[in-house]
Amino acid sequence: MALIxxxxxxxxxxxxxxxxxxxxxxxxxxxxxRRLVEGQTLFREGTSADCGFVVAxxxxxxxxxxxxGSVKDEGTAGTGTLLSELAMISVVERKFTATxxxxxxxxxxxxxxxxxxxxxxxxxxxxxxxxxxxxxxxMISGAAGLAGRFA
Length: 151
Hints:
Blueprint (H helix, E strand, L loop, with lengths): L2 H10 L8 H10 L1 E5 L4 E3 L4 E2 L1 E7 L1 E7 L5 E8 L3 E2 L8 E2 L3 E4 L3 E7 H10 L1 H25 L5
Antiparallel strand pairs: 1-10, 2-9, 3-8, 4-7, 4-10, 5-6, 5-9
Helix pairs in contact: 1-2, 3-4
């Protein structure tokens, strides 16, 4: 794929929507493309995460393992999905395992690249902060809705 295709893809990712083409170009130019074949694991639950991945083509099965050893299906990630977005900002562990359902391509955005974007463009840092805050508020609201089940 050409750089312009990656820029178009990034423009569809919710975290990056609204960024100018120049800013998306910076990310696309510094990112790395990776090809995975069906059944290949992109990353494993519990491992240290130092980057995020945008699914460029194909799809990934997401799953985690419970303490009792049972496998919990976390869904499927398809084209345009950003996996491990917090890893682009902070040291975190992967919360699930991602395995290619079919031959797939991802674009790896490492933490130094993304931090450079945040440092050079404070408006991007504010936008990312607001989107992360909204995601956390939605998660907290969802958890609060479950509180009655555990009382």
